[in-house]
UniProtKB/TrEMBL annotation, chains A, B:
List of residues binding Zn(2+) 2: D90, E125, H378
Name the UniProt record assigns to this protein: Allantoate amidohydrolase
A Gene Ontology molecular function term of the record: hydrolase activity, acting on carbon-nitrogen (but not peptide) bonds, in linear amidines
Co-factor requirement: Zn(2+)
Binding site for Zn(2+) 1: H79, D90, H186
Entry similarity comment: Belongs to the peptidase M20 family.
Signal peptide residues on this chain, from the entry's feature table: none
Pfam families membership: M20_dimer, Peptidase_M20
Residues covered by the Peptidase M20 dimerisation domain: 208-306
Keyword Zinc among UniProt keywords: yes
Length: 406, 406
């Protein structure tokens, strides 16, 4: 019922924008390349007869009318921004699977009861601007608009400035309207489905997250004449925290994840003892109590390590959300879609955060996962197959019809 | 016999070029700011009646004729480039103390037997281009010219290109001429003189150095859905090496120094497991055998750590020189200078590398140290006093006269 090769072609066309040599994409949020991908999406949606609107966080909504246009819409969506060395499918798949649902409905001249929308959420990745999912968070009332617009990249440019610069600072109010149901299709980004030979993941839950920013300040000094015992080496402190973060992840394993992904060393010169290091920590667990225990251990380790080297430490938890259970009715709609299409499946907990996490705060929500090769994502080699892509879109179509005609 | 306030004023004037908010300078080798400092030095030297020439490595020589101009010159010098967050004295002091010797000789209408020169060596710091002291190394025949000109910064720009760009690719052959003696005045950059209340350090030796570049390659992957046990986290590996480097430094203490000063994380995004990390190691010791033992331990640790995480490792020692003993006659000339001027002193081993290390390969060489506050260098707060600055210049003058009239 969906046109899988059209969907695949659209994925490949979109992947040309910001294409990297190793087959991935670099399309950081609110860059010129992000604008190009938005422009292409908007053009495709208008060609599909949708009405496009943009809100003040730059979230884009392409609407296909329903028979009763006063009903709250069923929304599908995800994001078009990527990691610096991201893949072709992370986010884009959910957006273009949504568009393919609309195109398929058009092909069938099918009129749903409720309107159907395809959404693009701004800065889902949280790479250029932290935290992740900030614009869907504003939509859901988790963050206020001012907070969203003032998020700044490492060069100090804010989301508000950059939205205006690329022409996607829309005038629509962010959120504050009823959504009948939200469905997000996505690659799994982990190894489970492929390892078990399942085509569809029926996502029942998302694990919780805590993100931290830590700055250690010691004292810059010459690497040659400064005795080891006189040093206050900020990088030595950060290195010990990296190892401690790994220990915490292993201790609360196998479900815990603990990562230091970003580090900036100052002044970053071979023969200077680093005087200041800024770095981040990313903790995840499906059990909120364990996430809290990990938090406690991190705080203790950072304090201990700063103390043993004589560093000043600036420690901030910049993001937290508790594990999320999706809506039973929407999950059931996904499961019915799997049954109708006959694909193999299993229930799954999402390891990544998704805009669906925040949408779930204001709308009945569920997600559809498809496998990705070797479970690799946030990597230019990220890959899935046309068959899996088509299967996920079929399930999405059925889930949407279930809710839009309810 | 020298004009200490003129010297201090020149130091302050030079420090305006690339001045930083915290009172230091940022004047990386072969930047526009480096050119400005060279231009000012050349102007001052010409005003002092010197003849200025520049060699193909951008080394500058300002010559004051001797009574017998066919005698090999006595050369004083150091460097004008700085660390990214460097101080006002590191290098500059030796250059301007040399200039002050020339100015004082002029004031006294004093004609030395041999000619006297003030040298500025290119890229002593080794911060923008590694290794350090590369242009004095070419002068001394330790490196060939091609090697020197092809050193590249982290953005791939070479010293040859940058010398041409700032107009300091001279036409004089690099080295290949006789130097009667070389004297370098410098701040100590360590805590010993100040702690012991001595004004002058008579530098007898320099410790040896080994510099390394290490790249760990693992696999970029998503920080959320990637189980701890499936990870190949390049930053975890680098962090463990940072800790191992510190352990090695402590183990061979109190004289060993071991530092990781520079690290680049790829892709450096909060929710991506780092796939590649490039970092450097700086080892120092006055005993070559111990330096060799440290090298062996580093190699073993890097191999062990890469193995335990499953990382590919690219390990290169990019620089090595054995500890250096300065020339007995030149050291004696410095000591005589201290005795004549009556300043307190002690013999000292240099913890930092200096252009004098390479000059010692082709000329009788010694150094004069003055204290710096709290032993702090390679830091914007680096400080010395006008009294110490004057004292060091007096000693330099006497040492130079001793050799130029020998
Ligand atoms: N799906 C995805 O990659 N989201 C980015 C936010 C996160 O790190 O969980
Ligand atoms: N004197 C000085 O800071 N030299 C830089 C080279 C080194 O690190 O030893």
């Amino acid at each position: 019922a969906v046109n899988g090769s059209r969907l695949w072609q659209s994925l490949m066309d979109m992947a040309r924008i910001g294409a990297t040599p190793k087959g991935g994409v670099c399309r950081l949020a609110l860059t010129d390349l992000d604008r190009q991908s938005r422009d292409l999406f908007v053009r495709w949606c208008e060609e599909a007869g949708c009405t496009v609107s943009v809100d003040r966080m730059g979230n884009i909504f392409a609407r296909r009318p329903g028979r009763d246009d006063s009903l709250p819409p069923v929304v599908m969506g995800s994001h078009l921004d990527s990691q610096p060395t991201g893949g072709k499918y992370d986010g884009v798949y959910g957006v273009l699977a949504g568009l393919e649902v609309v195109r398929s409905l058009n092909d069938m001249n099918y009129v749903t009861e409720a309107p159907v929308e395809v959404a693009v959420w701004t800065n889902e990745e949280g790479s250029r601007f932290a935290p992740a999912m900030v614009a869907s968070g504003v939509f859901a009332g988790v963050f206020d608009l001012e907070y969203g617009l003032s998020r700044a990249d490492l060069d100090g440019r804010t989301m508000g400035e950059e939205l205006a610069r690329i022409g996607y600072a829309g005038d629509r109010e962010v959120g504050g309207r009823k959504v009948g149901a939200y469905f997000e299709a996505h690659i799994e980004q982990g190894p489970i489905l492929e390892a078990e030979g399942k085509t569809i993941g029926v996502v029942t839950d998302c694990q919780g997250q805590r993100w931290y920013e830590i700055t250690f300040t010691g004292q810059e000094a010459h690497a040659g004449p400064t005795p080891m015992l006189r040093r206050k080496d900020a990088l030595l402190g950060a290195a010990r925290v990296v190892d401690a973060v790994n220990r915490i992840g292993l201790k609360y394993g196998p479900l815990a994840c603990a990562t230091v992904g970003l580090m900036q060393i100052h002044p970053n010169s071979r023969n200077v003892i680093p005087g200041r290091v800024f770095f981040t920590v990313d903790f995840r667990h499906p059990d909120d109590g364990i996430l809290k225990a990990m938090d406690g251990e991190l705080r203790a380790e950072v304090e201990r390590i700063a103390g043993e080297i004589g560093l000043e430490s600036d420690f901030t938890q910049i993001w937290y959300y508790a594990p999320i259970a999706f809506d039973a009715t929407c999950v059931a709609a996904v499961r019915k879609g799997v049954e109708r299409t006959g694909h193999s499946f299993r229930d799954i907990v999402s390891g990544a955060g998704h805009d669906a996490c925040y949408l779930s705060k204001v709308a009945p929500t569920a997600m559809v996962f498809i496998p990705c090769i070797d479970g690799i994502s946030h990597n230019e080699v990220e890959e899935t197959t046309p068959e899996w892509s088509t299967a996920g879109c079929e399930v999405l179509l059925h889930a949407v019809l279930d809710r839009a005609n309810a």
